[in-house]
Amino acid sequence: MRLSYDWLKQYLDINVPVKQLAEKIERTVVEYDDIIEPSKGMKKLVVGKILSCKKHPNADRLKICQVDVGADKPLQIICGAPNCRAGKKAITAIHGARVGVNGNVKIKRAKMRGVRSNGMLCALDEIGFDKDVVPKKWQDGIYYLPDDAKIGAPVYDYLGMNDQIIDLSVTPNRGDMLSMTGIVHELAAIYNKKPHFTKPSVNEDPTHQAKFEVKSKADPKVAPIYKLRVLNNVDVHDSPLWLQIRLWNCGIQPKNNVIDVTNYIMLKYGQPIHAFDLDKLEGHELVARHAKQGETVVNNDKKSIKLDPKDVVVADAKQPVALAGVSGGLKANVDSKTKNIVLEAAAFDPIMVRMTSRRHSIHTESSKRFERGINHAGVGEALDDAAQLVNQTSKGQVASGIITVNDQKVEPKVITVYLDSINNVLGTHLSKDTVVDIFRRLGFKDQITGNQFRVTVPARRWDITIAPDLYEEVAKLYGYNNIPSTLPGGPLTSGELSPKQKTYRKSRRVLEGAGLSHAISYSLTTVKKAHMFMSDDHFYETKLLYPMSVDHAALRMNLISGLLDDVAYNQAHKVTNTTLFEQGRVFLRSSKDQQKPTELMHVAAIVSGSLDADSWYQKAKPVDFYQLKGILDMYLREMDVAGTVEYKATDKHPEMHPGRTADVYVGGQHVGMIGEVHPKVAHEFNVSKPAYVFELSLHKLMAMPKRSQQYQAVPKYPAISRDIALLLDKDISNQSVIDLIKQRGGKDLTQVKLFDVYTGKHVPAGKKSLAYNLVFQNPTHTLVESTVNKAFDKIQKDLKSKFNAQIR
């Protein structure tokens, strides 16, 4: 909302520097983004009268103009505007003038196609006006000033450029600050002044009755308040200059006197008004309702909008003519041929308006106000003021009476507060008289009984509903800077991380120590990506009702898809070796009826390319399954999980390579998976190199029993090592062999390590060769060969009997 300082002073006797005013508003109500001074940096822009205008001898589109700027003799100026003609007064930049935003362009004498030009005849956008607020009539040419403009005088007052404008950043809870009346009431309370508002008096013509029918079945859920006024014989033309200045200084493009009045009233009251051409409405009917299946509406840009049955529209007897509370349609818009109009003032349901606006990505000044709420008690007053102003600017006759389709009795809210409560919450010692004075300045009526206040809040402050809202009003008018600073009371406690926080931090630290970089991906993704890489397929996605885009339509149920997007981004920027991990929440619903998803913490990692870069002593090797498995083994070991870690090959994950994927079990409980992303899936993500990933449920790992960390002294007695090579069937897993060796190796067996795997020449078909190193050691005495040999023979015997292994 742009606040015009000149307009503000029409309703409030205030004379403070605009910078000081803006800072006061920011400390008290809402923030401001900027202070705009349209004439800042400008100089030597004067009113010039074009005395003559003739064709340039060396250019088809240029004209040589003689311009009177109040000097001793006219200036010769070359102009290329198509609407340049003699007898008109225009914005003239003379030699040395500064134009553009903050005067960033200097005008100098110059020759154009051999003819000297001593200045410039300017369009509005050339002197700093935003192109979007320049009336269409003047967008392709120079701007004509009023005929009574004084020749040679500065142009700034004629264009409203000496105004100062505060660009307010209005929060959703303060919709009243999107109107001049709301701002004036707020500043009147802050500066303890009385605003100058007068109620509109409509000059109705009793000879003109409203020959207009409205269906009485207008949906009260769509528009609990819906009122209309009819005007006949209007003359649609350009608005008076004062009205155009009000609009373009507030960032709105002037169009014609009828539409400009509706925008002006919206800025003044915060009440959007819409004008329909009465003669273009089928059956002379208007009704606010939900759209029907298959209906469309054509907007003012001539684009057809396909409507959803949840959309709210305003329709005539045949079809929708506007999106209710959002924007008008082309069919019944007001143009230069319009003679009879109907003005609509309504209170549309804010949620329905917001849903319609978001669904079609149409955000307007009107929808912004309806979404935040409007003053329901001021709908009729705004409609009367709009009708009277259209009457003044178009000489149209206002038909007698308001057509009321739906109405709503608006009662002011009465809230009870206590003086002790106010002081306890604010930490102050305010007297009863001080609080009474604050409520009086706000325009709130109160009844006092002892320390109790029964405060009557007017409808224009619909944001105030409970006692704490009144505490805030007292605090801001008393002055936040006047509230004493105090330290919190109570016993002091030492700060400490919770066990959960410690686990999260340790998890990140371990993976960072393994050389992986921490990535953070969006929690929102596509529905398809949400269902990928799921260990369980019985979960349902959580969709957003109104997503920002199709790429952010659902909450994620895995972390791997986000990491694949990160790898694709890196590879697109020539980073071929990527090692990333992410620790974050996933969102799962176990049934369609579950309203809110369950949030679970997961941890995932991805490696693509090589873990090590090329160097002088070795070449980089592509990452493989076992390198990532080593990182995962180290991670689980450092997380002190007590259960036995198992990897079981699986082909149940369609997004993973069926021969290079395993489910991860800890203590017999499934906690995640590890493997290579299927090449087809990697291609879908635009990942060009093989990518190996794992994802674990950190939620499950945290719930598992943990190993107690105890110091073990370095053994004083030597170890004995034995190697064994086995010829086994290919379907026998390494883990099953290790489990058997540990089971039969006795208490002195401290380590089993696979150091060689061979298949190929000299190995029979369907067989493989595995070689293991076994370490025996006792912490209390030196082992003898006979003890180790006995345990080693037992291991060999069981391997032969259980796996039919051949000892090589």
TrEMBL record:
<dbReference type="InterPro" id="IPR005121">
    <property type="entry name" value="Fdx_antiC-bd"/>
</dbReference>
<dbReference type="Pfam" id="PF01588">
    <property type="entry name" value="tRNA_bind"/>
</dbReference>
<comment type="similarity">
    <text>Belongs to the phenylalanyl-tRNA synthetase beta subunit family. Type 1 subfamily.</text>
</comment>
<dbReference type="GO" id="GO:0009328">
    <property type="term" value="C:phenylalanine-tRNA ligase complex"/>
</dbReference>
<dbReference type="GO" id="GO:0000287">
    <property type="term" value="F:magnesium ion binding"/>
</dbReference>
<dbReference type="Pfam" id="PF03147">
    <property type="entry name" value="FDX-ACB"/>
</dbReference>
<keyword id="KW-0963">Cytoplasm</keyword>
<dbReference type="InterPro" id="IPR005147">
    <property type="entry name" value="tRNA_synthase_B5-dom"/>
</dbReference>
<dbReference type="GO" id="GO:0005524">
    <property type="term" value="F:ATP binding"/>
</dbReference>
<dbReference type="InterPro" id="IPR033714">
    <property type="entry name" value="tRNA_bind_bactPheRS"/>
</dbReference>
<dbReference type="InterPro" id="IPR009061">
    <property type="entry name" value="DNA-bd_dom_put_sf"/>
</dbReference>
<dbReference type="InterPro" id="IPR004532">
    <property type="entry name" value="Phe-tRNA-ligase_IIc_bsu_bact"/>
</dbReference>
<feature type="domain" description="B5">
    <location>
        <begin position="410"/>
        <end position="485"/>
    </location>
</feature>
<dbReference type="InterPro" id="IPR005146">
    <property type="entry name" value="B3/B4_tRNA-bd"/>
</dbReference>
<keyword id="KW-0820">tRNA-binding</keyword>
<keyword id="KW-0030">Aminoacyl-tRNA synthetase</keyword>
<keyword id="KW-0648">Protein biosynthesis</keyword>
<dbReference type="InterPro" id="IPR002547">
    <property type="entry name" value="tRNA-bd_dom"/>
</dbReference>
<dbReference type="InterPro" id="IPR036690">
    <property type="entry name" value="Fdx_antiC-bd_sf"/>
</dbReference>
<feature type="binding site">
    <location>
        <position position="469"/>
    </location>
    <ligand>
        <name>Mg(2+)</name>
    </ligand>
</feature>
<dbReference type="InterPro" id="IPR012340">
    <property type="entry name" value="NA-bd_OB-fold"/>
</dbReference>
<dbReference type="GO" id="GO:0000049">
    <property type="term" value="F:tRNA binding"/>
</dbReference>
<dbReference type="Pfam" id="PF17759">
    <property type="entry name" value="tRNA_synthFbeta"/>
</dbReference>
<feature type="binding site">
    <location>
        <position position="463"/>
    </location>
    <ligand>
        <name>Mg(2+)</name>
    </ligand>
</feature>
<dbReference type="Pfam" id="PF03483">
    <property type="entry name" value="B3_4"/>
</dbReference>
<keyword id="KW-0694">RNA-binding</keyword>
<keyword id="KW-0436">Ligase</keyword>
<keyword id="KW-0547">Nucleotide-binding</keyword>
<dbReference type="InterPro" id="IPR020825">
    <property type="entry name" value="Phe-tRNA_synthase-like_B3/B4"/>
</dbReference>
<keyword id="KW-0479">Metal-binding</keyword>
<dbReference type="InterPro" id="IPR045864">
    <property type="entry name" value="aa-tRNA-synth_II/BPL/LPL"/>
</dbReference>
<keyword id="KW-0067">ATP-binding</keyword>
<feature type="domain" description="TRNA-binding">
    <location>
        <begin position="39"/>
        <end position="156"/>
    </location>
</feature>
<dbReference type="InterPro" id="IPR045060">
    <property type="entry name" value="Phe-tRNA-ligase_IIc_bsu"/>
</dbReference>
<dbReference type="Pfam" id="PF03484">
    <property type="entry name" value="B5"/>
</dbReference>
<feature type="binding site">
    <location>
        <position position="473"/>
    </location>
    <ligand>
        <name>Mg(2+)</name>
    </ligand>
</feature>
<feature type="domain" description="FDX-ACB">
    <location>
        <begin position="715"/>
        <end position="808"/>
    </location>
</feature>
<dbReference type="GO" id="GO:0006432">
    <property type="term" value="P:phenylalanyl-tRNA aminoacylation"/>
</dbReference>
<dbReference type="InterPro" id="IPR041616">
    <property type="entry name" value="PheRS_beta_core"/>
</dbReference>
<dbReference type="GO" id="GO:0016740">
    <property type="term" value="F:transferase activity"/>
</dbReference>
<protein>
    <recommendedName>
        <fullName>Phenylalanine--tRNA ligase beta subunit</fullName>
        <ecNumber>6.1.1.20</ecNumber>
    </recommendedName>
</protein>
<keyword id="KW-0460">Magnesium</keyword>
